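User: tokens in, sequence out, please.
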């Protein structure tokens, strides 16, 4: 498992990764070449790559500014909400984070290690507002769920009792 957050592109070579590797990339630009990584996922089904930090709304993002938050947001914030990946229901969590704390001050702003209960409070608020994890995608490519199932079947190990 590789979790990436770098500002340097292509520091990881997709062809050099071991079969069964999962890359969750929160980098901009990406830590590996998206075209090569997606091609390997599609052809060999032995590398899984995904964006990190995306959430999915049960409503189109254009509706969120009006229905989930308030009508007082200026037009620049509304325009920013419409910059989505890969569709109108997906939003990066870093964009949503500041809106959550502005609209729901009881959630509190978190810097560094979150206070006890803060992660759960944010998670519950997101669920209440109709958000969930996004579909797996990398850059502008939505990962085929059938290929994801094939990867999972090939590389997941049976659960062991605790």
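Assistant: Sequence out:
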């Amino acid at each position: 498992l590789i979790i990436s957050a770098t500002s340097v592109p292509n520091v990881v070579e997709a062809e050099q990764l071991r079969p069964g590797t999962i890359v969750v990339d929160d980098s901009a630009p990406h830590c590996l070449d998206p075209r090569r990584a997606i091609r390997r996922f599609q052809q060999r089904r032995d590398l899984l790559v995904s964006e990190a930090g995306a959430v999915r709304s049960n409503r189109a993002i254009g509706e969120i500014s009006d229905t989930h938050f308030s009508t007082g947001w200026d037009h620049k914030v509304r325009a920013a909400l419409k910059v989505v990946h890969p569709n109108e229901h997906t939003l990066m969590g870093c964009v949503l984070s500041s809106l959550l704390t502005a609209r729901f001050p009881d959630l509190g702003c978190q810097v560094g290690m979150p206070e006890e209960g803060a992660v759960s409070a944010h998670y519950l608020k997101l669920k209440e507002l109709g958000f969930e994890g996004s579909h797996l995608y990398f850059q502008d490519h939505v990962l085929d769920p059938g290929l994801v199932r094939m990867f999972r079947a090939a590389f997941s190990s049976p659960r062991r009792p605790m």
